[in-house]
Specification:
Blueprint: H1 2-17, E1 20-25, H2 31-39, E2 44-49, H3 53-57, H4 62-70, E3 73-74, E4 86-92, H5 93-96, H6 100-106, E5 111-115, H7 118-131, H8 145-158, E6 162-166, H9 167-172, H10 174-185, H11 216-219, H12 243-258
Parallel strand pairs: 1-4, 1-5, 2-4, 5-6
Antiparallel strand pairs: 2-3
Amino acid sequence: MADALVGERLAAVRERHGEVFVIVAPPRTASTALARVLWNHPSVGFYSHEPFEPTYYRAAPPEVAAELLEAPEPVASLGGRGTGSALVVKEMTFQVGDGFPALAALATRPVVFLIRDPRLSIASRMRVLRASGRPEVFPLRESGWEDLMRQLEHVRQEGIDHLIVDSTALRAVPVRVVPGIFERLGLSYDPALMTWESSSATGLSAVSGADDPFYERVLHSGGLEAPLEEIPDLSAFPTDAGFRAHVEWCTERYAELRRSVGPTDP
């Protein structure tokens, strides 16, 4: 019964906004940067940032995610230029977890999956954690890749339209990648969408709010930033609790997905 009620509430969210664009990604894959591009589109007016975050970190019931989706932020308050009614939802693969089918059903256009070489994204997550005084070796699930593979299997089995975007290509050649994404989403494209002013928002997370260091860079950016990071060797990752072996497994899955995605495909 609870799942049915949550489903009804999400259906009402979809009806209210008309269009709902869903981005799902492992951490540190430029997913919020892509969301910022969408904030500028005239048809977009609202943004829901990781509504399933409390269900992962606080074991909150799915109703909390529904509540957050029912009260999205106007993009104007975050620095976006969109004035429409469409909603953008951005979520981490591991946070939504088993709630992914409900989130995928919320989308009115293809679900966008962002990926990035796990050696880069995991090293980036480790750096942010270390800089904020937290342990750099995090639970393996929080790489996002185990849930990502399950979610891709779900959309394939259910015939749910989706696209996979490599964030390195997105950042390196946005003028080639972003138009393709927008075409799949049924949106018009304008190069002006890819630049913005620094956001005055102090935080995006419903759990950590202004204290979340993960979004400081993207909020203060002026657009998509070219990738300059060097891919670390696997030997750079600690072996604790199978961490290095997990990074290797994620990297193998990434290579498999890359073979199905062209170098600048959306």
